[in-house]
Amino acid sequence: MTDYNIAVLGGDGTGPEVIAEGVKVLKAVGEKFGINFNFEYGLIGGCAYDVHKTPLPDSTISLAKNSDAVFLGAVGDWKYDVLPPEVRPEKALLGIRKALNLFANLRPALVFEELVSSSPLKPEIVSGVDIMIVRELTGDVYFGEPRGVEVQNGEKIGFNNMIYRENEIRRIAHAAFQTAMKRSKKLCSVDKANVLDVSRLWREIFVDVAKNYPEVELSHMYVDNAAMQLIKNPKQFDVIATGNIFGDILSDEASMLPGSLGLLPSASLSESGLGMYEPIHGSAPDLKGKNLVNPIATILSAAMMLKYSFSLEIEALEIENAVKNVLKSGFRTEDIFTEGMRKVSTSQMGDLVAKSVLCA
Ligand code: IPM
Ligand code: MG
Considering the entire predicted model, what is its pTM? Predict the structure, then answer.
């Protein structure tokens, strides 16, 4: 029997609830295919701060580094908003991405036919959308130094630095081109090269890396236009490559194509092969403990783990098909509920998907 060790970091708010459903589905896959998934739990975010006075304890980083993959819920809760920035839960998320060198963040926005009516956009616009956003995750204005708030000439100024090194752009470009090679060989690089110097370098490097992938059709788009085109005509996109901050914003926007943040999974990959898998949504602390949130983004993140970290393609597909079957049968969590459908809780959705995996 093959063994895989998974570090499970539920985090704060509804993070542990959605992670529990992802673990449930992974266990079903293990049972069906004779795979041993070993789950080892650790703390990250506010819950880690409560115990260790830091949102990212060393023990969590070593647990992650000694695992075959990391499965993360979400971090953050309003009660931690009063903490100084260096120990805020969000800092832990950025910290673990950096510590594990997870530079390539894959965020698929796939519209399930069953959910076309859940999107706030017209069916003819969203039906058939299948986009992969490749977001750079360890650079940009998120990490650029210097940063801070200072007093200058009696006035406060706040500043961050948008910095990309050539090598950082090169490796995300390769990741994006390789992703495009496995899909429809169309890559759109999104930047703000009409204004930002860092974007001009970004574009230059993408054009250079493109020489290694002659089959891929590379295009460029300014981020403001991309934000508009994503709503106007999302089907023009296949793979989108962009920097950390633009990718953060565009991926939340793209979640409205399928209709809910609760549907979008993500994979964050390093050069060493270690990957972290998490839904793109936040911790939704107001919904904590209510068994209301949608675990599908997390369950689909588990499928991405099987595919990208363990090369278990068939098993990953099994999860995706189980999600589709459950949706086809009319089950909906609150966020994607429409008239005539059957409303289910977080844990019921997890049970249904796990059952569908086992019965398929
Ligand atoms: C995301 C989140 C994070 C980010 C926050 C919570 C730090 O919005 O994963 O998209 O900005 O990257
Ligand atoms: Mg975000």
Answer: 0.95
